[in-house]
Structure formats: C-alpha cells, structure tokens
Write a sequence for this structure.
C-alpha cells in the first residue's frame, strides 16, 4: 500500500513558513510511517534566530492577553456582584419608602376624615343652637 504525500507549511519555530512533504495523519492508523521531507533549503541562521525570538514575543503577548482576559472576567464578576447588591439595597429602600408613603397617606386620610366629622358635629351643634334660639324666640313671642 502506497502513502499519499501532502505539502504543508511549517507554522512555528525556526522553520516557520518552510514547505515540507508529509504523510497525512489519520487517527485510526497506528502504523503511520512518520515520513517528513523538507522541500525548501534551510533558512539562514539569522532568520531562524529572529523567528524564534518572534515566537517568544508572540507567546509573551498571548500570556499577557490571557492574563488580561482573566482580570477582565474577574472585574466583570465583581461589578455584577456590586450591581446585584446595589439593586437589593434599592429594592429595600423602595419598599421602606412605599411603606412610609402608605403610612402617611393613611394618616392624612384619617386626619381628613376626623376634620370632616368635626365640621359635621360643629354644623349639627350650630343647627341645634339656631333651632333652640329660634324656639326661644317663638316661645317668648307667644
């Protein structure tokens, strides 16, 4: 059985961008021949060193990005927790304010009802007084 070759490009390290031939990997195939043949000439030593340094810088930036993402997730979680606590506090204060308003509204309505009753009693007493005076005047004329 013959092996089909596939052309690939090296993606990292000293040989980045170099073309090579390889037998494609098949996970179910345990008897792979592991054949690799470079098609390009080897890169100059200086270019290889620069590529290695470039990959180190990229790895450093990737670690920094990962750390920044981790810090951002933590900051977002902390802010969400703070907002949740603030929302709970606002709900409690709103409930207290609503209860206070209800109390004072009930008290004001009660006082208004008492004033109405007092005016009604005063009007009735005034009417009775007028009736008594009128009755005395009629009795005195008779």
């Amino acid at each position: 059985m013959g092996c089909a070759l596939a052309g690939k490009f090296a993606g990292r390290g000293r040989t980045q961008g170099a073309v090579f031939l390889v037998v494609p990997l098949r996970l179910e195939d345990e008897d792979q021949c592991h054949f690799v043949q470079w098609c390009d000439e080897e890169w100059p030593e200086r270019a290889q060193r620069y590529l290695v340094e470039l990959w180190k810088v990229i790895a450093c930036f990737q670690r920094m990005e990962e750390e920044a993402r981790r810090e951002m997730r933590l900051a977002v979680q902390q802010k969400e927790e703070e907002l949740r606590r603030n929302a709970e506090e606002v709900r409690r204060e709103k409930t207290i304010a609503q209860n206070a308003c209800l109390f004072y509204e009930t008290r004001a309505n009660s006082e208004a009802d008492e004033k109405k009753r007092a005016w009604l009693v005063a009007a009735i007493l005034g009417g009775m007084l007028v009736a008594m005076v009128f009755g005395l005047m009629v009795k005195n004329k008779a």
